[in-house]
Amino acid sequence: MAIKAGDLRHPVDLMKPVTTTGEHNRRSTSFVKQATVYAAKSDVSGREFFQAHAVNAEDIVTFTIRWRDDIDTTWRVKHGAETYGILEVNHLGYMRDYLRLKCRSVKGGGV
What are the boundaries of each domain within the chain? Predict the structure, then answer.
């Protein structure tokens, strides 16, 4: 896969889930920034759908970043004001050059 340095122009934050146990043994999960990296971003699809009498917009996008071996589908990607849940991590043939992260942002319903 040929990626030019200029293609990786979108700064994104990679966020890892951290679960803590608080008062009365209540568990809560928050997302902590692990790194800021540069990514190529491409839109896969956009659609609107009706659910529970509400209109939600769903965006599926792909971020291509340099290889990391610690990312999985529990992580999130933040780009600007948008937060995306990772649906799929594609190792692109395990060449250890780049990762393609297929992500979803759901407006009106959270990630």
Answer: 5-107
